[in-house]
Amino acid sequence: MTESVYKIIELVGSSPVSWEEATKNAVKSAGLTLRDLRIAEVVTLDMKIGEDGKETTFRARVKVSFKIVSD
Amino acid sequence: MTESVYKIIELVGSSPVSWEEATKNAVKSAGLTLRDLRIAEVVTLDMKIGEDGKETTFRARVKVSFKIVSD
Amino acid sequence: MTESVYKIIELVGSSPVSWEEATKNAVKSAGLTLRDLRIAEVVTLDMKIGEDGKETTFRARVKVSFKIVSD
Amino acid sequence: MTESVYKIIELVGSSPVSWEEATKNAVKSAGLTLRDLRIAEVVTLDMKIGEDGKETTFRARVKVSFKIVSD
Amino acid sequence: MTESVYKIIELVGSSPVSWEEATKNAVKSAGLTLRDLRIAEVVTLDMKIGEDGKETTFRARVKVSFKIVSD
Amino acid sequence: MTESVYKIIELVGSSPVSWEEATKNAVKSAGLTLRDLRIAEVVTLDMKIGEDGKETTFRARVKVSFKIVSD
Amino acid sequence: MTESVYKIIELVGSSPVSWEEATKNAVKSAGLTLRDLRIAEVVTLDMKIGEDGKETTFRARVKVSFKIVSD
Amino acid sequence: MTESVYKIIELVGSSPVSWEEATKNAVKSAGLTLRDLRIAEVVTLDMKIGEDGKETTFRARVKVSFKIVSD
Amino acid sequence: MTESVYKIIELVGSSPVSWEEATKNAVKSAGLTLRDLRIAEVVTLDMKIGEDGKETTFRARVKVSFKIVSD
Amino acid sequence: MTESVYKIIELVGSSPVSWEEATKNAVKSAGLTLRDLRIAEVVTLDMKIGEDGKETTFRARVKVSFKIVSD
Amino acid sequence: MTESVYKIIELVGSSPVSWEEATKNAVKSAGLTLRDLRIAEVVTLDMKIGEDGKETTFRARVKVSFKIVSD
Amino acid sequence: MTESVYKIIELVGSSPVSWEEATKNAVKSAGLTLRDLRIAEVVTLDMKIGEDGKETTFRARVKVSFKIVSD
């Protein structure tokens, strides 16, 4: 009987709204080519400040796991 | 004179909305049985992805401190 | 709708055989009083060496999560 | 040709609303005296619980980088 | 033959004198309800500064292990 | 003269038997598509507990390195 | 309503007596120019050994937080 | 409006000259198949010692980020 | 009254069978020249993959403590 | 007798040549306004890749300590 | 011109009085056989609790550096 | 069949030129008394600043592994 195996890739998503949206954007882009996405673990969070000091972008660096071998 | 002593427990709260809500849910459940809750420190954040890839749940793993001996 | 909440406790199990057995022993002791045990994460592993240098005990420090509030 | 040099300061911002707002408040206060703010990296997040257990404050400890020497 | 199992709880003790006293206070409070206390590992140390900047309190965050199953 | 370059991917293998088997399963799945596998470094180990509290699965999260450019 | 903002600076204090004294010396020097000092977190501790191997100096590297914007 | 998403891969480059060259070699190999390379963060550095103890190779383990979705 | 002092050395043991055996091999080699071995803490675990991808060696990097001054 | 106190600031220097040069540039800029610079500890190293993938900049994030109170 | 080289060994000292004394005891034992001791960095601190719960021993795990090659 | 065992020692090398040279100097000093040196892992890097602020020394703290038991 084979055991399930997961692969983990590291992505950085961004959003002008929130870190939750930034995480969703990263997972959405992964979802375009990958199946069985399970969990997105937050590695780091930061906020990029625009030249004018006003406009800000929230960035979430996440590790996304997805199944590559099913048990 | 006795010195105050705090205890720290580790909880994982969840919410479909945000990591702030997930943290509040964890603290609320602790508050049912404990007094003098002080601070909830975030240990890790992740996002669980539903089978259909759409429905997501935000999870916050937090350490909650509360007073067990008052000075 | 309430969201599920998990609690995490930290235990050290031991075994003369292996770290897997030591982890199972820790979880077994937790299972006597707790329900819905989910995952035991390994924090650290070590091996205690007997006075004669021969007899060894494998110890696994683990964090065990279990459900305290069901969604 | 001189090379650009950045300085990094550590701040704790707070907000009753969210960790994003808390981060913005920290950066806003830095922006009053500093130019060329670039990035705010999240170091830790926590939530302070009011005496009544209800009122909560989200706190974000961030490292803010800004340019002190331009190339 | 059952193998011994230890549980680990996390406490914060305080003292106006020293970090050693703060650690002893945390362990003393644990000792009121628990047997077989073995080791208190220091997690972090800090010093709280009074409003007047004079009065200081030393705080020790420690993990205390105690036996819950005897071999 | 070109210098050798290695790539590192992150996988989670599982096994009902041991963490060694779980690691071998992860590497086996990688070996289906990749050559020159060199080393599997353990990142984290955990044990998943079945609904009945009995059936357990050992999971090993590993980083596997393999050569992509030969010197 | 503005939210309070704290700044954190990193200092190394020293003392021939103890790490508590070394921490107090670091905070005392900060207190000469700063108000509202709150907490000194210990980052690292070390002991410098004199040329003769006898005379020792205890050094505490601490992060001191103080209020720069009041709510 | 879509938000930009970056992917991060982990590589080990090597060079008999320096860690800077080793990093450039890793990035050069990535550049053969990937566009929009942004930053190579150093994870670890080491030096491999030849059998004769003379010949040495500098190795740099780096995380390279590149854009996969443009805003 | 002198206080006991322990020294800690770092070793890497290996075995084709398991990480427990690899740890025992490291301690056995230390035991040839040292007395009063107490504990072997696991620092890291990895698995070396043979050229043919089949033959694997489990390696355990451990810190072994032993008494050098008795109280 | 007052004890010496050091302050630590965090800077990011850069150079097209090497990480040593980047560290020197950071310290040089600090030296313009500060005396008694002692040590620059490397926190992280990275390499920024130009738009054309060719031009690279080595960046060193360092913590620089300098004396603010002399014993 | 040769450059100075330092070696670092890891010791655990203990004392019924304080962590400062425990560190001094570790360094004293090293000083019996080694010259040019420079710095003892604290790695971890803990407190061993006697069988009766009263008698306590403070233990300091330290890294001691000493010169083995003079410039 | 005995399994190979490696020992790891920690050294600090220095050089006025570069961190690569500092690492080589540390390994060279180890090589005077030890055989089968394999790898020098970088633990930390820093730069010591001379009294005049000009003369700088690059220091590399490394862990050097060498074989003590051959398979």
From TrEMBL, chains A, B, C, D, E, F, G, H, I, J, K, L:
Record's superkingdom? Answer: Bacteria
Name recorded for this polypeptide: Dodecin family protein
